[in-house]
Each structure stands twice: as C-alpha cells, then as structure tokens.
Amino acid sequence: MQVEYLVRISLPDEGWDVNMLEEACWKAGREASQGLFLSALEQRNEEVVALAGKESKGKTMRYLTTRLGNITFYREKVGQSNGEGCYPLDKAIGLQPYQETTLWVKKRACELANQYTYREAAALLSAEIGDEVSHGAAWSWVQKSGKALRKEEDQRREAVFEDGEVFEGEGEEKEIVVTEMDATMLHSQEKGQKKLTVKLGIMYSGKELESETAKYKRYRLAEKTLHGGIEEVEEFGEKLYLKGEEKLTLSKARNLLVLGDGDPWIKNIAEGPYFMATYQLDWRHLMVKIHQTFSDQPKLVSELIDYLYSGQGERMLTTVKLACLLCEDKDKRQRIADLVTYIENNRDGLYGSRSLKDKVEAKRVLVCSTGAMEKNIDIVIGRRFKKHGMSWTTKGANNLLKLRILCYNKNDWEAFWTKQSSYGVGFSPN
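RE: above sequence
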C-alpha cells in the first residue's frame, strides 16, 4: 500500500530567517505525518470493509494519542451473524477495545516517569508530540506496564517454587557471584501505615577497573543486575534468586557471597535453601553501633574495633558481654544487650568474605562493605521516590519501581517492550 500527502510551506519574500524556516518546516512535517497516518487508515478501512462483505452500520469516531499527536479518525462498523457489530479496521491494524495510545507513546511516558514526577513527565511528553497529555494518562500507562512486569515475575516464581518447574540460566560458570541486599523506607499514603519498606538487591560477578591510566582508580561492577520491590522476605528472596539465575547462572557459580547490614532477613535469605551462600556482615554498621553504644568510652570503642580488624571477633563479643554485666546504668545496659544480640545474630558473618580468600582469585569482591548497595539505594530509589513531599501507595510505588529497575538491567528494557509489541498494541493482556 502506498500513501501520499502533499504539504507546502509559505515564507515571506523578504525578512525570514533560519528560525522562521525551522518553524515552518516543523509544522509542515507534522501536518504531513498526520495526513499520511489518516490517509493510510482511511485506505485500509475501505479495503478491510470490502473484504468483510457485511452490511455497513455507519462510521464511528475513535481517538488515539500517537507520536504524531492526538489523532481523530473514523472506521466503519459492519454487522455480524449474531446481530452485533464489529470494526474490521481495528482488527486489521491491531487496535484493542479502549486502547488509547500507541506503543511508542506508552514506552516514552514510562521512560520519562522513571526520571521525573508524573506531571513533569506528562509536560515533557506533551512538548515532544505537540499535543497535551495529562499526568493521569502518564500515571495510568506506568501502572499498566508495571503491573504486566509484576505479573511476569509472579508467574515465573509460582512455576519454579510452587509447581516445581526447573529453571536454569544459560550462562557460563562464574568463579563467584556477590549479592548485596538492603531495605529503605518510603512515606505511605495508605491508611494506618506510615511507611512502606522497599527491598533492593544487586548481584555481580566481579569488579572491573574503569581506566588503566586514570589518576584515581575506580571500579565498575561486572555483569550487575538488580531486583527490588515492596515484597515479603520470602517472595523477595525467591525473585532475587530467579533474576540472578537468569542473568548470572547462580546454580553454576562456584562461590556465592551475600553482604548485608545485619538485618536478620538478609542472613535468612543468604542461608536459605536456594542461595546457600557465605554471609558477610557490613562492618561499618557494626562499628556505628559500637560507637553509639559506648560513646562515652572511646578507649573501649578503639579496643573493640581493633579486635574486629585483627580477626578476634569472639574476643570482641566477650568484651561486650562483660561490659554489659558491669554496667550499672539500666538504659545503657539495655543498649549493650542489644549490641550483644546483634553481634551474636551475625557472628557467622563477621569474617565470611575472608573464608573465601583461598577459593577466589577476584580479591576485589571479597570486602566487608555494602557501599555499592547503598549507592544503588540512592540512585534507584532515593532519587525518584524520596523527593520532598512524596508519598506512595504499595501498588503505585511497586509498579514504577519495577520499570525503573528494568532500565538499569542491561537489555531488559528493550526486551520488555518488544514483548509488549508482540501483542500488537503495546498492552500485555490482562
């Protein structure tokens, strides 16, 4: 099928400049694009209605937000044997009932909403297509896309962990895969709930030097992949493992190391039946607790930290227990008791990464710090979800977070939208 549409621009004989020419050409290009779009729809409508060979029941108007702006067009309604009508054009060009936009617009709205507030994203998109897009429409497209992503995750998790389906990655064996986990809080809009807990995990197979010639050495995480969500511990751990299996083939890794800040849920995931990883406590969190507990005893603080760094974790724990017994202040004794509990809960993780030094050549990953995790918490969550005055519902935050993480996982963004286009309309089925 060939479609033609002729446009002309008019300029004064004298006095026009390059800016005037640019504006005239842009408007003409937009007019031509919309004209071609409508002409193609009209021609296709005539063809499919003729092929249907059914009685015409008149034309109906339809609206569509496109890359070319808001398009209004008409398509023919024909009768069916059951007495109801249908629109042959809709089926021919892959339009679903109630579809309001093309795939490009929906994808672009999600890209912008990943970086900006919904109002800002809608304003930027409006400027790009030359017609107004409401922030409510942008929000709706993000929610539908995020919901489709969550549905994919839920289906895969159910297939593997409930139905017993075997799922194995196709990558090569890794010497080590490191996983860092943490959680952060968002302000909640939901009644009776002040905060929402968002969990994030990053996984990588090593650290690569950014530049051999740079004055200061900087490293990037090799094969980094992320998973996050407002999810219960079991659900989060299983989905994180599946993402790691998909991207890094955890089942073939010779060593698995999990880094955490000491929260029990991280250790539970690390030692669970699918990870079965070596656990390492982030020393920085332990040292902060030591400083806070013994803020009035700097010599004791220095002694405890020396024990930690010299590999005498048990001696450190014994010293803290003794301090608890000798403390006469009730409030401080309780703080020391809490520190004892924290160390005991994480004693197996005090030197987890050290235990792998003879097994792993990539020494750079055998650290006791979750610095990479904290940076990703800031970039992935903080910079979009924690701006001044923001609050969220569980579904609203979860749907947007899934899309935002998708952008940071290499190749996943385009793969997701390619899959959506396979449905013909940019919307995965409900």
